[in-house]
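Request from the bench team (R.T.):
"We need a structural guess for the complex before ordering more flavin mononucleotide. Sequence and SMILES attached. Just send the tokens back."

Command: build protein-flavin mononucleotide structure.
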Amino acid sequence: MHPSESIKGALSQKLEGRTIVLGISGGIACVECVKLARQLIRHGAEVIPVMTDEACRFISPMTMEFATGNAAITGLSGKTEHVSIDFDLLLVAPCTANTLSKIALGIADNALTTFALTARKMLLAPSMHLSMYENEVLQRHIKRCRERGILFVPPEMGERKAKMAGIERIVADSLRALRAGRGGKRVLIIGGATGEPLDDVRVITNLSSGKMARALAMEAYERGMDVEAWASFPMPPYITTEHFTSIHDLLGLIKRERTYDAVINCAAISDFTVAKQKGKIKSGKKMTVTLEPAPRVNPLLRKMAKTVIGFKLAENESEVIPRATELVEKDDLDYAIGNTIESLGSDSVRIWIVGKKGPVRETSGKKEEVAMEILDLI
Ligand SMILES: Cc1cc2nc3c(=O)[nH]c(=O)nc-3n(C[C@H](O)[C@H](O)[C@H](O)COP(=O)(O)O)c2cc1C
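Reply to R.T.: structure attached below.
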């Protein structure tokens, strides 16, 4: 067994049965290609490296053969690889200015650019000096590619370079390119823990990790949805995110009256607010805190979306369905996702889905897997 087989599908089966041709052109970001290829394999993909002559000056074809288990194609042969290999996506990463321009013009003078003429779907991850990226000719070629439906992973600007996007982003965009349906829905994910301020430096908070919200946002992005997140923790940079700390912040975001096709609220929102004191409460002295019932957030989400899904954390399994059923009614939700305190901070979760007509189903797994079932509801 080739070593690449041992990691296949280790993260997910999302790319199982999919073949990605990884086109590698001659930029310094070639050094990221081993990690990139292996991350795609971890999601179940078969990866076939195709390298330009210039790319072979940066990394060796043998390195890519080791990384993927497939011999790197560095030139076409009598096998006519560009038409005989059935592939789902041509991902060009890094994509040099030279290769991008040739793809825009339909030039097929090496194996990579010839594959570009037979690809059904293409995703380019440009990488070059800023002056090259901003060049008028290159920008015209990017526009031409976009008009043909070619997808781009935007480069990260900094240090006078348009650097190739990070591996996490390229993998997310590859998944999005291969999994997205037509006409992505607009979805808002609210997640994390609120922190109710005691004074200017301390908060009363809870143990919600935000892992469920992160999994939901990433899954929605990969499905081609137009995702926005309101989160108390850092989300992947490609998810448009509004940061919140307290219930007061959340109420401010709700007041903006944005609308969505669906809102999923899995945030652990405090049931209480505190009368905040100014400055820093002196230490070393006993103090009394008065907790007031907090305004309920879920009912305010109703007018923001056609579908509203909330979460209910119960202390034990016997309480989950009654509590989730109560929440659907009280907060006018389409669904409540019941779960127990074991799921707090954990990578996996057991959930009970309850709709307006009662319990729908129970499921468990990694939060990434459960996120798929929840998004199927919308
Ligand atoms: C050290 C070095 C680094 C380079 N890095 C890049 C780069 O990041 N992006 C780019 O567009 N070209 C870069 N170039 C220039 C390309 O290698 C050159 O344009 C080449 O013709 C690209 O060929 P290819 O697109 O067939 O791989 C670099 C050249 C050298 C010598």
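Two things stood out. The chain is about 30% helix and 25% strand. Residues 186-376 form a domain with the Rossmann fold fold (CATH 3.40.50.10300).
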